[in-house]
Amino acid sequence: MLVERGLASAALDPDGGAPHYRAASPVLALGPLLEARRGALYQVEHLVTELSERHRAAHIRASGAPVEVLSGAAAIRRRLLIMGRQAQHEVCSLLPMREAPVALSVEDGIEEVERDSMARGVLLRSVVERGWFDRPHTAASVAELVAQGQSVTVADRVPIKLTVVDRGIALLPLDPERDETEPVALVVHRSGLLTALQALFDQCYDRARPLRAVPEPPPGEHTARDGLDALDRQLLALLHVGLTDAAIARQLGMGHRTVQRRLSALMARADAATRFQLGSHAARAGWLD
């Protein structure tokens, strides 16, 4: 029995006597078994968690309560992931700058939720607070969304973190300013409150500036219409949404002084005395299209 399970080895006696048995190393013998059991336990735990969330959602719908409360980062994270994976048409997000711990970071949300949603053809609409572009990893993740055709707008300030899925369910923090380590969130189902939250998102989205994706032709290639190369167009698009020179440099992988030199050249070409005048000229001349 022990030999069959890999817990011991048997050496036959050349003289026909009884075989000699040697115990196998516990690590080598039991390691694969433990890994298999651990994997099975994880799958069961994941299934129990998913069933628990479905039971909670069904109970809320049956009770008719428009709002449920989630406590703890783990519970909030699970619900966000489930909402994203169940999205069929649209996911709307408000992303303010917050130093407090969050259940799901912007980068993790893009990696774990948005990629799956985009693969299923779900439209993503986001309003991102400008300060996020001072963080290179977040800026790169947002740029990837835009490059894949998703709609991202940039605002000076975003009032609250909010996710609305298919205009049928929303999740937001109970108190955005609380400094406690265990966050508390509200899940809002179809109701007047949900309608108000969707209206808040739509208002923020309409007032923010769209972040445009600019194709990247080979270096030095110019358009016949205005002579701007792709790098100038990218720079103007980022300037248009209000990014600082430093943030633009990080976004484009350029030096700070290189950005300033190119902006100065564009200002001279547009006969603009200020960055604001350059932005206005770029919009009128179609440089942002």
Automatic annotation (TrEMBL):
Residues 225-282 form the HTH luxR-type domain. This is HTH luxR-type domain-containing protein. It comes from the Bacteria. GO terms for biological process: regulation of DNA-templated transcription. One of its GO terms (molecular function) is DNA binding. SMART domains: HTH_LUXR.
